[in-house]
Amino acid sequence: MNNVYQFTAKQYERHFTTPDEHRADGDDPTLAAYLNARLKQICVTHVMAIPGDYIAEWVTTLDDPQQNPDPALVRVHPNNEMCATYAADGYGRATGGKGVGCVAFTYGVGALNAVQAVAGATVESVPVVVINGSPSQAQFNSQRDQGVLWHHMFDGSRTDLRIFEEITEMAVRIDNPAYAADLIDAALVACVTSSRPVYIEIATTLEGYPITGGAQRLATRLAPKPVPRNKKDLDLAVDHVWDKLQSAERLVLLGGVEIARRGLQEDFARLAEALHAPYLSTLLGKGLLSEYSAPNFAGTYNGRNSQQNVRDLVEQADVILSLGVHENDFNFAGVASADAGDHSTPGVLPIESTIEARMGAVRINSALRPADVGELYWGNIQLGDLVRELLDKLEGGSLPGAPFPGLAGDVWAIPEPATFDGDAQVTWDSFKSYLHHAYLSDFDEDDVPVVLADTGLTFYNLNNIRVGANGYIAQIAWGAIGYSPAASYGVKLALDAAGQAHRRVVSVSGDGAFAESANAIGTIAELGLDNVVFVMVNGVFAIEQFLIEATAFKQPLGNPPFTALTQVRQSSLWNWTDLARGFGGVGYEVTTNAELAEVVEVLKAGSPPAPTPSGPCADHSDGSGCCDYSPGLAPPPGASTFTLVAVHNVCADLPSNTRWKIQ
User: Fold this and answer.
1) How far is CA 174 from CA 39, 42, 158, 312, in A?
2) Cβ atoms 69, 40 nearer than 8 A
3) Which of 35, 145, 192, 325 could share a disulfide with 256, CB 3.0–4.6 Å?
4) CB under 8 Å to 564, separation ≥6 — which residues?
5) Over pLDDT 90: what percentage of the chain?
6) Could you say which DSSP state residue 379 is in?
7) Three-point CA angle 35, 38, 39, nearest 5°
8) What pLDDT, on a 0 to 100 scale, did the predictor assign at position 20?
9) Read out DSSP for 441-470?
10) What are the pLDDT digits (tens) for 330-339?
């Protein structure tokens, strides 16, 4: 072997680490301290951090009071990078535009394990800061010049940076402290401006270098910096929108997720009240306003999965004012088609009668334009500016057609639990009934739990439960199964940071989805959180069967059969109560509606206590070969643990609101 590759420990130290004389002193913060302070300024409170030597030097500063601002960033130790990113994503969603999630991991094996989860946050406009520890510049040079492939490195072409450049709003690499502050500030401003993930890659050994003039820079807080508006175009767009609203007879206001991501809920609520028109959320935007007190709230629109009265209201509208709506096929189930000539299914979204404002643009569609006018579109209109300008116009009085026709019937048309036979096996419909009427309805607006509905039949089934502000979280566009269990502890941490620790977090997943991120429940127990994790144990990836061949759900069963691809056989082998206990929680298994009702009463009675550590090191005995952990293995005194409820529901069952596909 060529001797050039045989580095001794001293040679490695000389070539690839930071000499002490370059460490920060005096008033200049270190690079790590500067980053920590800036993260606090954009309302990061928790860092989901996975160990790794390339990121270790920065992560350890989170435990150092001199490097971490007061109040300090809290370091959380998830079980893998995917779950860590889901948790950071859940944190970013739960704050309603007032906070940012953060995740940290090491190069290659860590970062690339998080790619799909980061991509989902980008697709759904969730503010997350991704921090990746990288090999140093010296190590990259060594790979280039000497052929040394350092651990976790794919090759010398900066693979991680190139990948994250494609899936984040901004990706930067810091390999020189001279411009670290500029890059950190630019990335974090991009995050809070776009409400999307950004990526900061830090070359190992740089964390302790001084940021010259950093203290003075920190005195100026970071804030969103949207593209400067063109007032002339804004006025023109508002005038055209206002003109169409003046002639509306059946106006509907449709609110989407961008309202929440941009922190526009207060102005949007004022607009909903001033229009005197029914307000509906899309499924991805569900909970952007509290459904207990939202002005003129008329339900959640989810295409053909909507309640019939909600569908009728939308489809009969002559003008739909659509603000901040992320248009995707899961959001508009059954009414969105990639084939322009596909009219095989009745009931389509009346897009031609829609005024759309989203992602910095406004479009007035065909039915609302004069015959002699081409497309009305402005590509430089900020959503908040449009909302506030419309509010100003409404100060002089209401629209001619106001008050506009509202919803006919119940906003939450969910049968009562008494509708279902107590001795019968749980179905999607009976589960929703007990969750909505017997559990969630027991809370008032300030205390109602946040519900996370996992990808699949779960988020379709639960689309019309009543929720509070920021109270319904689901990946409606990206659709990664297994998102909810891990995201749920990020949501709970966000509630705690916002002074809402009393609000519980409930996640609902299928068994196939839960298996993707099952070990997240261990982190929930470690953090002492009282989350409730429902798992619908039906033995199949029901949403995949629904998408591939829905007629398998028809009676009589077996024609056609469920595909082998969609079977989740392992879930029949799991002892769910022991599984919960093994991860430090409390578990229940239910099969009938009566059993589900009993567990719901247990949940309402309170939260379980903290788990008791077990095993030979549980008492931290000295001399037994046990490590001396600080602050210890157990959650903080007085903390709780999670409750896992395995619901053995009917395998060949569809929620009633999705059965249109087999009729």
Assistant:
1) 16, 20, 12, 54
2) yes
3) 325
4) none
5) 67
6) S
7) 85
8) 40
9) GGS-TTTPPEEEE-TTHHHHHTTTS---TT
10) 777 877 665 5
Q: Cβ distance 438 to 597 under 8 Å?
A: yes
Strands 101-106 and 128-134: parallel
pLDDT tens digits, 304-345: 999 999 999 999 999 999 999 988 777 778 776 655 554 455
What is the DSSP code (8-state) at residue 361? E
* Rg, C-alpha atoms of the chain: 26
- Evaluate the omega torsion of the peptide bond into residue 560 and state whether it is cis, within 30 degrees of 0: yes
Rounded distance between C-alpha atoms, residue 553 and residue 47, angstroms: 43
Q: Which helix (H) or strand (E) holds 106?
A: strand 101-106
What tokens does 404 get? 């506009």
pLDDT of residue 634: 54
- Residue environment code for 72-95, b if the CB has 16+ CB neighbours within 10 A, otherwise e: ebbbbebbbbbbbbbbbbbbbbbb
Supply 547's token pair: 């998408």
The CB-side HSE value for 441 (13 A sphere, CA atoms) comes to: 12
Cα angle, residue 232 at apex, residues 229 and 234 outer, rounded to 5°: 60
- Average pLDDT, whole number, for the chain? 88
* pTM score over 0.85: yes
The answer on pLDDT for 248 being more than 80 is: yes
Q: Tell me the residue length of the chain.
A: 663
At residue 423, what is the residue type? D
